[in-house]
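User: Hey, my collaborator sent me this sequence without any context and asked if I could get a structure. I don't really work with proteins. Can you help?
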Amino acid sequence: MITTSGLAVDGGAKAFAKMSGKAQPKVGVEEFLSIARRFGFSPEALQRLASAVSDGDLPERGPHLGRYWGSAKPSMGEQFEALAKDKFGVRHALAVSNGTGALHSTMLAIGAGPGREVICPGMGFMATSMAVALAGATPVFCDVDESLQIDPSKIEALITPRTIAVIPTHHWGVVCDMDPVMAVARKHGIKVIEDCAQSPGATYRGRFVGTIGDIGCFSISSYKIIGGGEGGMVITNDDRLFDRICQAAESGGLWRPSRCAPERYPGELFIGGNYRMSELESSINVIQLRKLAGVVDRNRAVWRRIKPQLGNYAEITWQKSNDPRGDIGYMMRYFPATDELGRKIAKALTAEGIDTSYRGAGAHPDFHVFRDMFPLFGKFADRCRAELCPVASDLYDRSLITGLDQWWSPADCDAVAAGINKVLSVYCTKIGEQA
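Assistant: No problem. I've predicted the 3D structure and written it out in C-alpha cell form, which is a compact way to encode the shape of the chain:
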C-alpha cells in the first residue's frame, strides 16, 4: 500500500529539485543585433555592439517583448500610456498596434455596425472610412472647405436616423473647426471621433486635438511627425467607452481586473480582436512622444516665420486655417486659379530649390480623396461618386504643396519665403502686402 510519507508536500525530498539543463534565451543578442542593423548602424558599430554584449548578459529566459505576462513592470506600453494621459490631460489612453487599429477599435466600441452610418471627410487617408466599413457600418462622405478639413456646415444634411458618429480628421498639421462640429453632433446625439493621425500635438482654441470629441485616435508611425515604426493610440475621458475600446483592441481580457470573469455590466464584453502594441514599438514610441512638443514648436516657428512674409496674389488662394495658433504647419498648401498655372509654379519653385508638388488634372488616383478609394467600391461605390463632394474633388487635385522642415534656420525660412514670392510675383498678380 502506498502511503503519503515521503511526499514533498509532507516534507519529503523533491523529485525534481532543480533543473540541470541550461536554458538559452528565446530572444537573445542575435535578435538585438538584427534590430541594430535595421537602425542602420555601420558594420564597425555593429561589431562593437556584438563584442560588448552576449546572451549571458540577459535574463535566463531572455527578454519578453510582448505586452503580456512576464512583461517588465511597468511595461513600456504602460509608460507610453501614462505619458499620453499626462500629455493630453485625459483619464484614459490605450496603446495599439497602429492608427487603423485605433480607428477600428473605436468603431466597435461605439457600436458602429450593419445598419449604422458614420460621416467621414471626403479628403484624408482611406484608413478612416475603411475602419467604418470594417466594423460593418456605412461610410458617408462629407465635403471639405478651403481648410481641406470637414465642412461643418454640410454635416447636418447628411445625418439620418442611422447616423451614429462623425469623424472630423485633422489633416496635414491643420485642425478642423471643432466648435460647430461639436454643436451639430450634440444636437443630434451622435458621437464625435477625432482622427488625429496627421496632426498630433495640434490644438484648437487651446485644447489638444483628440480631447475635444468623445474619442481621439492617433497614428504614431514612421510616416507621421512622431513614431519610429507602426503604432497607434486611443484617448478618451469616458470610462465605459474606454472599457469597450479595450475589449475591441484586446479581447483576450488582459485589460480587465479579473481577466476571464463574466461581464460586469451589459455591453462590456463582445467579440473583439488583438491590436496590442508590442514592447518593441512602445520602447521607441514612448521616446517619440516625449519629443512631440519640440517637434510641434519647431514646425510652428518655421511656419510663423515664412507665412507673414508671403504676399497675396490674385490667382492664388491660400489654405484656410481654423486656428492659426493651433496648427502645426509642417506643409504649406495653396490653390492656383488654373491647372496650367499650378504646374508652372511647382516647376519653378522646385528649380529654386523649394520642394513643391502639384497634382493637377488627370493625376494618378490617390487613396487620400474619397472618389479614388477603390477598395470601398465593391459595397459603397454609390457613396464615392465625385459629384457628392465637389470641393474635395477640386481642391485635392488643385493643391500646390510646399514641404517645410522643422530644422530650417531663420535664414533658411527667409530664403524660402523670398523664393516663393519671387516665383509667384512672376506668374501671378500681387494684390496685397502679406498672405
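In plain terms: The mean pLDDT is 94. You can pass these C-alpha cells on to your collaborator as they are.
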